[in-house]
Design a protein that fits this description.
By secondary structure, this protein is α+β, with helices and mostly antiparallel strands. The chain has a domain at 5-77. 44% of the residues lie in helices and 15% in strands. The protein has 5 helices and 5 strands, in the order ββαβββαααα. The protein has helices spanning 14-21, 48-57, 61-71, 83-97, 102-105; strands at 5-6, 9-10, 22-26, 29-32, 38-40. The protein has a 3-stranded antiparallel sheet. Strand 1 and strand 2 (9-10) form a beta hairpin.
């Protein structure tokens, strides 16, 4: 039996990837946990559209799945968000929700 090996270990089966990366299976497709987009895929047609979506939109998805399997946790959307963008968004959210003036948070440097 031949088995593909990646830099992180054995190649993950498509079924495992789909179970970890998608939610709400329906007869017409599933919802991606990384971007909340519904991907059309007939249940009897395999996983091609779902895996192609991950490969084109979410680089590093295999590493995320492996990490989640090791940690025994589920995939969440924040695992695919750039940390600088997330930090900026959280600061903006704090300023707006606490009604701070921009002058109070402006760095004078």
């Amino acid at each position: 039996m031949s088995m593909s090996i990646t830099s992180q270990g054995p190649k993950l089966k498509s079924k495992v990837i789909v179970e970890m990366m998608f939610r709400d299976p329906e007869p017409r497709g599933q919802t991606c946990k990384a971007c909340n987009l519904f991907i059309r895929q007939v249940k009897t047609a395999g996983y091609t559209n779902l895996i192609n979506h991950l490969a084109s939109k979410h680089s590093g998805y295999e590493d995320v799945v492996r990490q989640c399997m090791r940690d025994k946790r589920s995939v969440t959307m924040d695992m695919f968000v750039d940390q600088d963008a997330l930090s900026t968004h959280q600061w903006m959210n704090l300023v707006v929700n606490k009604n701070f003036s921009f002058m109070a948070v402006d760095d004078g440097v």
